[in-house]
């Protein structure tokens, strides 16, 4: 008898309590991230596919509409790689309001926590393809200032709205067609020592926003699809704070199963051919690397994974020297870990 495989919805619900899993929602230049912090109480699981903690939360809906795309990418660090699952919709279905000015939306009746539903939601007007990037506040002083500048771009010269937001640290709420991510912690900046706080946080990068792109070119998303959320399963080589961890073969195998189910079969085959060649004692030159960029990335990721799975050795070092010397062109939003 064939055993039914878990659905996407079941996989994601099962990951919500996992302290090593993470979630994101946003675009190229504006993103909200949610994950646990070691030592914190476990997030409360809500109805559907949702969880909330004292630092932030996530809710995902209508997952039957979603196409998951599992991906791997290079890291600037030569002993690492990156991975994730992009939750995608066709571009026309993914489009949000794309407001270009600060807009008051009213009380946030859809807030994850009942205590936040009286807070007033403002779309920041970042004009991004698949996310409405919002703030929520009940602070009278901030409300008055924001209302005085509704209808203006928040980053326009002479507009005090952005400076007021950075000073007041309102909740940030990223909304897409399949749900939301909420962040309650301070905005990274002068009040946080110039770094993002540990755990849920947001990034708004004006230089990248101007591109109005849905995602980084480092994510191999098929033409016509747009990522409307991200699922970040545990990494076999690092923790949620990007700290090194001993290679975990079970976590590695779990993500390779996601690649088999939701990844690019061509790139998966490239990795498997390389691993078979290495197992057979092949030397550099015995197996030509792919000519296309995506294939080269898969080839190089497989070399790095071989080093972590089996340990570095002189022959693998020759392969790495031949084919994994420098990063291909990477977007400016490439993570640094």
Task: Describe the protein's architecture and organization.
- This protein is elongated.
- Helices cover 27% and strands 24% of the residues.
- An eight-stranded antiparallel beta sheet has the order 3-4-5-12-11-10-9-8. Strands 6-7-14-1-2-13 form a six-stranded antiparallel beta sheet.
- It contains nine helices and 14 strands.
- It has helices spanning 8-15, 91-94, 140-148, 161-168, 206-209, 249-262, 265-279, 293-310, 314-323, and strands at residues 22-27, 30-35, 44-46, 49-52, 56-60, 67-74, 81-90, 103-107, 120-123, 132-137, 171-176, 179-183, 201-204, 225-232.
- By secondary structure, the protein is α+β, with helices and mostly antiparallel strands.
- Among the domains are: 93-184, no CATH class; 264-337, no CATH class.
- The model is unreliable at 329-337 (pLDDT under 50).
- Strand 9 (120-123) and strand 10 form a beta hairpin.
> How would you state the average pLDDT, rounded?
92
Span of the ends, CA to CA: 43 Å
Order of helices and strands: HEEEEEEEHEEEHHEEEHEHHHH
Q: What Rg do the Cα atoms give?
A: 21 Å
Can you give the helix content as a percent range?
25-40%
Largest sheet: 8 strands, antiparallel
- Class from secondary-structure proportions: alpha+beta
Shape descriptor: elongated
Beta-strand percent range: 15-25%
Strand order of the largest sheet: 3-4-5-12-11-10-9-8
Count the helices. How many?
A: 9
**Total strand segments:** 14
Unreliable residue stretches:
329-337
């Amino acid at each position: 008898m064939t055993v039914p495989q878990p659905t996407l919805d079941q996989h994601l619900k099962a990951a919500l309590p996992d302290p090593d899993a993470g979630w994101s929602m946003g675009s190229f230049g504006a993103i909200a991230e949610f994950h646990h912090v070691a030592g914190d109480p476990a997030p409360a699981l809500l109805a559907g596919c949702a969880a909330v903690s004292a630092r932030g939360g996530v809710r995902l809906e209508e997952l039957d509409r979603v196409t998951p795309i599992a991906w791997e990418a290079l890291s600037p660090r030569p002993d690492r790689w990156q991975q994730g699952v992009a939750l995608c919709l066709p571009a026309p279905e993914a489009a949000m309001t794309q407001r270009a000015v600060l807009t008051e939306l009213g009380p946030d009746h859809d807030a994850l926590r009942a205590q936040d539903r009286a807070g007033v939601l403002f779309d920041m007007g970042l004009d991004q393809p698949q996310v409405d990037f919002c703030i929520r506040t009940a602070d009278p002083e901030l409300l008055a200032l924001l209302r005085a500048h509704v209808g203006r771009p928040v980053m326009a010269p002479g507009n005090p709205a952005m400076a007021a937001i950075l000073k007041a640290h309102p909740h940030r709420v990223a909304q897409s067609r399949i749900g939301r991510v909420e962040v309650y912690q301070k905005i990274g900046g002068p009040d946080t020592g110039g770094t993002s706080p540990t755990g849920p946080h947001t990034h708004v990068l004006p230089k990248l926003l101007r591109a109005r792109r849905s995602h980084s070119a480092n994510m191999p998303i098929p033409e016509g699809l747009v990522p409307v959320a991200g699922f970040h399963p545990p990494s076999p080589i690092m923790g949620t704070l990007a700290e090194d961890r001993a290679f975990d073969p079970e976590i590695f195998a779990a993500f390779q199963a996601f690649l088999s189910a939701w990844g690019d079969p061509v790139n998966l085959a490239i990795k498997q051919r390389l691993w078979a060649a290495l197992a057979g004692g092949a030397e550099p030159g015995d197996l030509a690397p792919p000519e296309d960029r995506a294939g080269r990335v898969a080839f190089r990721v497989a070399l790095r994974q071989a080093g972590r799975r089996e340990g570095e050795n002189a022959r693998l070092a020759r392969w790495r020297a031949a084919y994994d010397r420098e990063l291909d062109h990477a977007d400016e939003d490439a993570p640094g870990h």
